[in-house]
């Protein structure tokens, strides 16, 4: 299954909810949401800085990932930036694919 990195950005309401639920409570809620659409929670970490949590998940498709990623915005508690993760074996495949590309000005 494709893997995604969700970078969670909480607003004030999201931070208040997280503190009320506790860190493990929110992780459990995210796991349940991910599994409800056929996904798998691989890791969940809180962090300092602009991103409040980093979550790595697997989903059957981009549509499933998008459905999960939109939930914080729909709930009004924050937003999620989604990064598609690419395995090293995929990069091996990419190395063998040649394109006919000309850079600007060349």
List the helices and strands and how they pair.
Blueprint: E1 3-10, H1 12-21, H2 23-36, E2 40-46, E3 53-58, H3 62-75, E4 78-85, H4 88-95
Antiparallel strand pairs: 1-3, 1-4, 2-3
Describe, in plain words, how this protein is organized in 3D.
It is a single chain. Strand 2 (40-46) and strand 3 form a beta hairpin. By secondary structure, the protein is of the alpha+beta class. Strands 2-3-1-4 form a 4-stranded antiparallel β-sheet. It has 4 helices and 4 strands. It has helices at residues 12-21, 23-36, 62-75, 88-95, and strands at 3-10, 40-46, 53-58, 78-85. The model has no long low-confidence stretch (mean pLDDT 95).
Concise description?
The chain is α+β, with helices and mostly antiparallel strands. 43% of the residues lie in helices and 27% in strands. It has helices at 12-21, 23-36, 62-75, 88-95, and strands at 3-10, 40-46, 53-58, 78-85.
Feature tags:
106 residues, alpha+beta, four-stranded antiparallel beta sheet, 4 helices, 4 strands, 43% helix
């Amino acid at each position: 299954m494709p893997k995604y990195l969700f970078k969670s950005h909480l607003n004030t309401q999201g931070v208040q909810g997280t503190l009320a639920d506790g860190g493990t409570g929110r992780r459990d809620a995210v796991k349940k949401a991910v599994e409800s659409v056929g996904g798998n929670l691989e890791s969940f970490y809180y962090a300092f800085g602009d991103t409040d949590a980093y979550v790595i998940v697997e989903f059957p498709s981009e549509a499933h990932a998008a459905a999960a990623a939109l939930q914080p915005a729909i709930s009004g508690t924050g937003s999620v930036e989604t990064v598609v993760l690419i395995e090293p074996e995929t990069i091996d495949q990419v190395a063998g694919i040649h394109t006919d590309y000309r850079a600007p000005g060349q």
